[in-house]
Amino acid sequence: MKGAPTVALLLFFLAIATSMSDYWRETVGMGQPKVSHLHFYFHEVGKGSNPTPILVAEANSTKTSPTSFGSVYVADDPLTEGPNLTSKLIGRAQGIQAACSMTEFNLIMALNFVFTDGEFNGSTLTVVGRNPILQDVREMSVVGGNGVFRLAQGYAQLRTILLATGSLTVEYNVTVIHY
């Protein structure tokens, strides 16, 4: 009988925890998923007085690497409606890029597309993935978002349309499922 109060107390708290567990399993309706297709252009300006990617770290061996392996950049790149940098600005691509291959020109990228104009103003999409920049068409994952793109998932297809010294323009076609 010595342990009876302890067992009774344990059973009491177990009963309370079990009765409250239904609250935590409550299903919340999200409505029907929507599919959005976005088309825009990403511009990276690496030269001049206001470069959009900034080198923040590199390994000792990066300077001798043919692929810049080990270099890490933070970027704040403009997103525009058209292929020209002077096209209507619709947002910014803000995030981190790192050269991740010793043998090929590949970046690992984590970017937030911050929309500042138009239908998606105030919303963001998060894109993460490997970007083999010399391939004609690449694909990266849409892993989240906020605002209009809450609970987003999907993919982005990338195609470089301009690669020149100090300048890069990439066409993005994004398909995203959101609620």
UniProtKB/TrEMBL annotation:
Please list the GO biological process terms of this entry. Answer: phenylpropanoid biosynthetic process
One GO cellular component term of this record is: apoplast
Please indicate which superkingdom the organism of origin belongs to: Eukaryota
What start and end residues bound the annotated signal peptide? 1-19
Query: Which keywords are on file for this protein?
Result: Apoplast, Secreted, Signal
Subcellular location(s): the record lists: Secreted, Extracellular space, Apoplast
Predominant subcellular localization, coarse grouping: secreted
Instruction: State a single Pfam family of this protein.
Output: Dirigent
Q: Which InterPro entries match?
A: Allene_oxi_cyc_Dirigent, Dirigent
Tell me which family the UniProt entry assigns to this protein. Answer: Belongs to the plant dirigent protein family.
What this chain does, per the record? Dirigent proteins impart stereoselectivity on the phenoxy radical-coupling reaction, yielding optically active lignans from two molecules of coniferyl alcohol in the biosynthesis of lignans, flavonolignans, and alkaloids and thus plays a central role in plant secondary metabolism.
The subunit structure is: Homodimer.
Q: What is this protein called?
A: Dirigent protein
In its UniProt entry, the species of origin is given as Amborella trichopoda
